[in-house]
Amino acid sequence: MKRSVHIIIACATLVAFTWGCDGSTLGSSKSATETRGAALQQTTADEKTEAEAHNHDFEHIDYSEVPDKKADPDLKLTEEQWKERLSDEEYEILRESGTEPAFTGELLKIKKQGVYVCGGCGEPLFSSETKFKSGTGWPSFYDAVEDGTVGLAKDNKYGMQRVEVYCTNCGGHLGHVFNDGPAPTGLRYCINSAALEFVEGDVEEGQSGEAATDE
């Protein structure tokens, strides 16, 4: 009789334990997992909304509104004159729309204050004030020194739709501009180092800081 009672008690204990694991314990784990999943989804949604709101803060370049070709430059030289005036690398980039290898340009490492001028004609184009570290391997700026100093044109080469940046004074190719830059413009002017020359000097009042580099 005692043996039967012990068996009954053992069975009842096993049933209770099994119910607890399947019902209470697993049910709680499932609830916690669902809660974590919902929280993760909400966080992802919040980050996406924040990113979209950030993008809407800027007047991004609309490719459809970019001119199909460059405007006529003020400075006009023959190709032979350009070849005499520029080094082989400068000519390839400025006159033939070439691109230097990433992280090779000398101006990428410049930390001093000053102005970046066109390597073809000396026109002031960018300031150390607007230079920032993009991590791309090319000097990057979020704005030009003045409106109209650089022009934009569609670039459909290599099966891509890009926006070319060029010097309006001489028509020299500088690089491209993208809609992934920092405030206050949201733009990233990705410029070939060999297309520019750096002129050291004090920046204007209101401009600040040591230029960022990708070094």
Automatic annotation (TrEMBL):
Keywords: Metal-binding, Oxidoreductase, Zinc. This is Peptide methionine sulfoxide reductase MsrB. PANTHER family: METHIONINE SULFOXIDE REDUCTASE, METHIONINE-R-SULFOXIDE REDUCTASE B1. Its EC number is 1.8.4.12. One of its GO terms (cellular component) is cytoplasm. Pfam families: SelR (PF01641). It catalyses: L-methionyl-[protein] + [thioredoxin]-disulfide + H2O = L-methionyl-(R)-S-oxide-[protein] + [thioredoxin]-dithiol. One of its GO terms (molecular function) is peptide-methionine (R)-S-oxide reductase activity. Belongs to the MsrB Met sulfoxide reductase family. It comes from Persicimonas caeni. Transmembrane segments: none annotated. It comes from the Bacteria. Binds 1 zinc ion per subunit. The zinc ion is important for the structural integrity of the protein. The active site is at 190 (nucleophile). InterPro entries: Met_Sox_Rdtase_MsrB, Met_Sox_Rdtase_MsrB_dom, Mss4-like_sf. It is an enzyme of class 1 (oxidoreductase). Zn(2+) binds at residues 118, 121, 167, 170. Residues 79-201 form the MsrB domain. Its cofactor is Zn(2+). GO terms for biological process: protein repair; response to oxidative stress.
